[in-house]
Amino acid sequence: MRIGLAQTRFPSNLKDGMAAVKEMIENGAKQHCDLICFPESIIPGLRGVGYEVEAYDHPSIKKSLEAVAVLAKRHRISVILPMEWEDELGLHLVAFVISAEGQVIGYQTKNQIDPDEDQFGYTPGAGRRMFELEGVKFGIVICHEGWRYPETVRWAALREASIVFHPQFTGRTSSSFYDDAMVCRSQENRIFFASVNYALPDQGSRTAVISPSGERLCAADLGREQLVVCDIRPEEATGLLARRLRPDLLL
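^ thats the sequence. predicted structure below, dont judge the formating
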């Protein structure tokens, strides 16, 4: 399976975000990617991280999702599209999964909201979901969830996920925690972990693919817009350590 991780600029507005998505999808198709994943809330941008983000407008967001589905079908590439999405429960951070046929399969909500995000009105989602494309099972955890709630990754590993995708935003930091945590999520479960950040002038963690043994297979340059393309062999993800979990010992 060939995956692409789209380390894009932070969008100046929804239109700019859509331009970045279109450019990366076309690039991914040219490089024969099976699936491409974007950073957290690429449409219309993530609130509370130092950038201006326009007010949420559901018709425009819905139209953007439909446009990306058309692009996916045209270029025969599956897409993980993180974005804002409002329903009857409130405004969520989600990651939609779109097949290469242009079908919107569903989405994973961000269920563990960073405390700093509470003030921006984001509502935690509920429940986790597995996805499958071309026979490859995968899960999605969004930013804060993958860093500080490893249970979210293990949930997918226990359900035969070969890879977990991790759309994120991580700015300035002097800690190696974020890059090290990627390795932990892979090694403690024996699965692939694919984390995608924005290209930021103060980028705090790498966009990278980590193997089940903890090896960094591919990584983007910090601060540069770049599509990271990586070939993985899903059968190498055994999920061995996840499957050996003894939940009875947690009681």
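The CA atoms of residues 44 and 55 lie 9 Å apart.
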